[in-house]
Design goal:
Blueprint: E1 6-13, H1 17-28, E2 34-37, E3 42-44, H2 48-53, E4 63-65, H3 66-69, E5 75-77, E6 81-85, E7 90-93, E8 98-106, E9 111-112, H4 120-123, E10 129-130, H5 138-147, E11 151-156, H6 167-182, E12 188-193, H7 203-216, E13 219-221, E14 224-229, E15 233-238, E16 244-248, E17 251-253, E18 258-259, H8 262-266, E19 294-296, H9 309-327, E20 340-345, E21 350-356, E22 375-376, H10 379-394
Parallel strand pairs: 1-2, 1-8, 2-5, 8-19, 10-17, 11-12, 11-17, 12-13
Antiparallel strand pairs: 3-4, 6-7, 7-8, 9-18, 14-15, 15-16, 20-21, 21-22
């Protein structure tokens, strides 16, 4: 058994959306002894990176110092997690520090595996290959969009659950709308590679996105994946037929294969049926299925919802309700229904506001607006409204 160097009532792993939101809610609930393990100096509002890549926002707008968002009174352990020992109720950091806990909240975010697509790592960030999934490369996406006047543009989504599954499509529509404005769209062959049999998991919005793609002349490769690439070509495989095609491209926006950090599996916290190593939690209570002292939320868990910040906003109050009940020896009454929201930009001034839950049916929160259709002049909601909600209310445990 490892002897802790320090112990806290609640330890939170991860200073992203989930970790900071839970920390704020725990402090507002009156818990005095909360620690947060997070190595990063900057906290990012990552949904803005789509707009950065589409030329609608600057990357600098998306970041704030980590110290400014960690709630007052929370102990910041500035380190990376190496392993969790759930039997001892300890977390070991990469520097060798052992941190004990009564309750543990796991919200480390998601890991990117660029190397799983041969040739992607070697070409990423060089010339014509970019990704809005990285802060440093989102501006390159916009630069490449502006430079593209003809040829072939490819927008790719990998196999498996990913952070904000709508993001690979959003940038395609923003780019095509810009090319339309510039008079270049008819000179550009646009290909969208999707691993799914439809545009979106909820039919009403999938049908709308079929119309959007057709409006821009986008060739959609369903049930497909990019299996390898060079600096000028890529191979696309149809997983249904097994057929492959080689495409010469002039611009590529690539989304990385994703999964949970390796230490989740190494710590015995993973869902053994998940090929991506996501942590096993009860999809309603957010409590670990084997270790009742551990709770989790956000992208690294195996809950069958879309991995979005909006999902975390609904998961966090449930988790805090159940964690505090657990500390008091009470039954868990909080229940998360799978709510997620994905505002999909379909042009530079339109979006689809897709809201749904575990039933995969629409669950609109704006009853006076028909969210089943594109909403005009609503992108200011994504650019200014949602970030304001995030920084001023969500991260402070108020929304």
């Amino acid at each position: 058994m490892l002897k802790p160097d320090q112990r806290h009532q609640v330890v939170i792993i991860g200073g992203g959306t989930g970790g900071i939101t839970v920390a704020a809610r725990l402090k507002r609930a009156g818990l005095a002894d909360v620690a947060l393990i997070e190595p990063g100096e900057t906290h990012y509002y990552q949904p803005l990176w789509t707009l950065v890549g589409g030329g609608r926002a600057s990357a600098a707008e998306s970041g704030r110092p980590m110290s400014s968002v960690i709630p007052k009174g929370v102990t910041w352990i500035k380190d990376k997690v190496a392993r969790v020992n759930p039997e001892d109720r300890t977390v070991t950091t990469e520097s060798g520090k052992v941190v004990g806990y009564d309750r543990l909240v796991v919200s480390p975010g998601i890991s990117y595996f660029w190397e799983k697509i041969p040739g992607l790592s070697e070409n990423l960030g060089k010339g014509t290959v970019s990704s809005n999934y990285l802060y440093d490369l989102a501006p390159l996406t916009w630069a490449n969009v502006q430079r593209t006047k003809g040829g072939t543009a490819v927008f790719h989504q990998p196999m498996g659950p990913i952070k904000c599954a709508g993001a690979p499509q959003k940038i395609a529509y923003l780019a095509c709308d810009y090319w339309r404005e510039q008079g270049d769209l008819t000179n550009i062959r646009t290909i969208m590679v999707l691993p799914t049999p439809s545009m979106f998991g909820v039919k009403v919005w999938s049908d709308e996105l079929v119309k959007v793609a057709a409006r821009y002349g986008i060739e959609v490769r369903f049930n497909s994946q990019v299996t390898s690439m060079t600096d000028t070509t890529m191979e696309i495989k149809n997983n249904e037929t097994g057929e492959t095609e080689t495409i010469e491209y002039n611009f590529a926006h690539m989304t990385p294969p994703q999964g949970a950090p390796a230490w989740i599996k190494d710590s015995g916290l993973e869902d053994p049926e998940s090929p991506f190593g996501y942590m096993s939690v009860d999809k309603n209570t957010m409590q670990h299925t084997k270790y009742p002292e551990i709770f989790g939320l956000g992208d690294a868990t195996n809950t069958p919802n879309s991995k979005t910040g909006a999902a975390i906003r609904k998961q966090a109050p449930v988790l805090v309700t159940n964690l505090t009940a657990s500390l008091a020896g009470q039954s868990l009454k909080g229940s998360y229904d799978g709510y997620a929201s994905c505002p999909i930009t379909t042009s530079r001034n339109k979006l689809l506001l897709c809201e749904f839950d575990y039933t995969m049916e629409p669950k609109p929160s704006l009853p006076l607006i028909n969210t089943k259709k594109e909403i005009k002049e609503f992108n200011h909601f994504k650019k200014t409204g949602l970030p304001a909600l995030y920084w001023n209310f969500m991260l402070k445990g108020r929304a």
